[in-house]
Design goal:
It contains four helices and no strands. It has one domain. It starts with a helix and ends with a helix. By secondary structure, it is an all-alpha fold. Helix content is 81%, strand content 0%.
């Protein structure tokens, strides 16, 4: 195997690993951890504490994954037909790749908004007893997480389509 092929294979592996870590954690949080924790603990302070601890641990994985995805993505574009162009709409392939990048960036923005909402809720709660005062913020944060999970699945779909388009000879 040529060195170039080996490097490409390693970059693709790392890109897929970072994707699995980020989106897998997000999907597990939305469809497994959150519903199970709510059902078991109710909506009291124990739930908030558990979710906070999970999100704190998850944030390191997310940060490493985002940086890893950006770096491996940049390296993988050298092999792409749209080489070096972040947003290009000159072909179907370039358009789909650009849409994937836009969705990826929107996921980062949504995750940032959710983090800001969580911090705002913590500061607003201050010394208050647990109650329904933070419920709208919690609901909004959950909706943002769910929307992010759906966008993540769309990113995976686009990645699969692009992978097939990249490997199938034209004609």
């Amino acid at each position: 195997m040529h060195t170039h092929t080996t490097v490409f294979a390693v970059m693709t592996f790392l890109h897929n690993l970072f994707t699995a870590a980020w989106l897998g954690g997000l999907l597990a949080m939305v469809f497994t951890f959150m519903p199970a924790a709510r059902k078991t603990l109710g909506k009291g302070p124990e739930l908030k504490q558990l979710i906070g601890l999970i999100q704190k641990r998850q944030s390191l994985i997310v940060t490493v994954s985002l940086i890893g995805l950006a770096l491996t993505g940049l390296l993988l574009t050298k092999r792409s037909p749209t080489q070096g162009v972040l947003f290009s709409f000159g072909s179907i392939y370039a358009t789909l790749l650009s849409v994937k990048h836009i969705l990826y960036l929107s996921m980062i923005i949504l995750a940032g908004l959710r983090t800001l909402l969580s911090r705002k809720q913590k500061h607003a709660a201050g010394g208050m007893e647990a109650g329904s005062a933070g419920q709208p913020v919690r609901n909004t944060a959950m909706v943002l997480m769910l929307v992010n999970a759906v966008i993540g699945v769309l990113v995976l779909l686009l990645s699969s389509i692009l992978s097939v388009m990249d490997s199938v000879p034209a004609g």
